[in-house]
Amino acid sequence: MHLYGTQGISNEGHLTIGGVDTVELAKEYGTPLFVYDTALIRERARGFIDTFKQLDIKAEVAYASKAFACVAAYQLAAQENLSLDVVSGGELYTAIKAGFPSERIHFHGNNKSYAELELAFDTKIGCIVVDNFYEIRLLKEISEAKQQPMRILLRVTPGVEAHTHDFITTGQADSKFGFDLNNGQADLAFEEVMGHEFLQLLGLHCHIGSQIFETDGFSLAAGKLMKKIGEWKEKHGFECTVLNLGGGFGIRYTEEDKPLAPHIYVAEMINTVQAEAAALKLAMPEIWIEPGRSLVGDAGTSLYTIGSQKTVPNIREYIAVDGGMSDNIRPALYDAKYEAVIANKANAPKESTYTVAGKLCESGDKLIVDAALQQAESGDILAMFCTGAYGYSMASNYNRVPRPAVVFVEAGEHQLAIQRESYDDIVQNDLPLVLKKGE
């Protein structure tokens, strides 16, 4: 059995995380429950940051918070000297409520509203990543009305297609994100913002996809961006100070996944940018990256209580848990694969095969198909690994199921980070019918 971070097995045969018994966590906080190993998050963050320091490269490592966002998560990121990538007014508002340093916040998104951009100006965030011509017009209008400068990056699509799932590949030409680097859109965007009184163009941004296990795509994208920067330097005298190469670094979900260590991704990016800068006689820009999944993905574990079981003779054995696609939509949406263990029997052999079904009223609500597990019984606690990214953040109230609680654990201690929703929470925004029945 593959264990992640501080996971272990107690003398009682229970799965532990951060020195805390997961069975006891399930008893205290209930299930479904997200458990985050904060020591592993810290380790991942330092792996990226320390590599830049060791190679003497000026950089920012921004947590791509769409992977998992809450006040405590943002405060943890601040403790580790991360910057922050937000993609909505809601994420930005949460970051400000968490006390995150606004100068280290970068705002992304392909359809930022006027109100969201105003909030970015009012909170004096560090940078806006500009995605389209409509946004340029809004930024000019707001900055001129407020007489306030704003640092920006232009997001470009470099035409690099990462080896990943079609739904999470965003660097190719046919993308809703960014200015195309190859058809002249990026050049037009540059001309729109260069020299503006209040918009301060730092450089370029790209993101080629997610769950990537190779460095080739990052190197190819970095090379293309540097060549474009070289063109702008030669034609317009532009000095690029920041090159943001995005994120998408893969993690291990199952034994088929072979992720690279953070320092390998970083070193390859730096080598490419340094080589291109030397060849083009450019100053070395500051490098920004945006890990999200690779910071929190394998630090999260979902705990469920097993309920009903069903045998389909000669076909399948089902066990059902008290969560499902309402707290983890990825198996249904992306055909994502996971591994699991019965937490209260973690040291027992995995001699059974089950399909883990959720409780939602959808036949596609299956968390794991044909999972190798210990012999399961009703009341057992199932621990599903690597659910820290895009689990809670994509959770819903489908079937009016309350969202789970979230607990952080570290060094034998645990704390509630997000309270479990109640039925009252579910109906709090509902209003009674006041229309009269027609005659």
Automatic annotation (TrEMBL):
Its EC number is 4.1.1.20. Residues 34-388 form the Orn/DAP/Arg decarboxylase 2 C-terminal domain. Keywords: Amino-acid biosynthesis, Decarboxylase, Lyase, Lysine biosynthesis, Pyridoxal phosphate. Coiled coil: none annotated. The active site is at C361. Pathway: Amino-acid biosynthesis; L-lysine biosynthesis via DAP pathway; L-lysine from DL-2,6-diaminopimelate: step 1/1. The keyword Cytoplasm does not apply. Its cofactor is pyridoxal 5'-phosphate. It holds the Pfam family Orn_DAP_Arg_deC. CDD domains: PLPDE_III_DapDC. One of its GO terms (biological process) is lysine biosynthetic process via diaminopimelate. Pyridoxal 5'-phosphate binds at G248, E290, P291, G292, R293, Y390. The keyword Signal does not apply. Residues 43-296 form the Orn/DAP/Arg decarboxylase 2 N-terminal domain. Substrate binds at R293, R330, Y334, E362, Y390. It catalyses: meso-2,6-diaminopimelate + H(+) = L-lysine + CO2. One of its GO terms (molecular function) is diaminopimelate decarboxylase activity. Belongs to the Orn/Lys/Arg decarboxylase class-II family. LysA subfamily. NCBIfam families: lysA. Homodimer. Specifically catalyzes the decarboxylation of meso-diaminopimelate (meso-DAP) to L-lysine. This is Diaminopimelate decarboxylase.
